[in-house]
Amino acid sequence: MGNDLRIKGLLFDEADFSLPPNYTAEALFEVVEDHCFQEFDYGYDDPYANPTFELFGMVSESFEKATDEIDHHSIWVKPGVGFQDIFLKIACRLDVPETVALEAITTGQTDALEEVLSRQIRAHLDASQHYSAQELTAYLADLKSTALLGARHENHFDTRGDEMIIDFRGRNYGPGRRILVEIAYNWGQ
Q1: What is the pTM of this model?
Q2: Phi, psi at residue 10, to the nearest 5°?
Q3: Fewer CB within 10 Å: C terminus or N terminus of the chain?
Q4: Residues with pLDDT less than 50, the chain
Q5: Cα separation of 72 and 74, whole Å?
Q6: What is the largest CA-CA distance in the chain?
Q7: Which residues are CB-contacts of 140 (< 8 A; sequence separation ≥ 6)?
Q8: Is 68 helix (H, G, I), strand (E, B) or coil?
């Protein structure tokens, strides 16, 4: 029997951190890792009643690089998979054309993506596929603020619940310097 892992993606921007001039990817990863342990490892005293915190890995958009060590349970952060690749895969799963998804990822402009999602939602509703329409509506609701398909607003964060990417940026600074950190809360067996 495996452990009950609740995997979360945490979206940050390099602008959210105090970084030295001419920093390296390794320096960035170290600062972000320290931040994650300070903010998301709640240090519960009773591991049987509360989860333990695990950091699986992270990927930087600006360095086009992931951390060297990535946990094998990871969903999004994988060796050789870049920041854009992660969000293109989400778009592919939702039948969003790659050109539309790539435009939103690289420019932060989501108008075309919103139109595609709106058309898909209407088509699902017309076909009485309410669950599919609901899933796309949830993505569409957060798209304006996050500008990334698949990223949800930080008020959706919890240590249980569904696997999802949560936007913890101080604000939407636009594309180019985003970081995705994959963590898990391990609730044991």
Answers
A1: 0.92
A2: -110, 120
A3: N
A4: none
A5: 5
A6: 54
A7: 114, 117, 118, 121
A8: coil
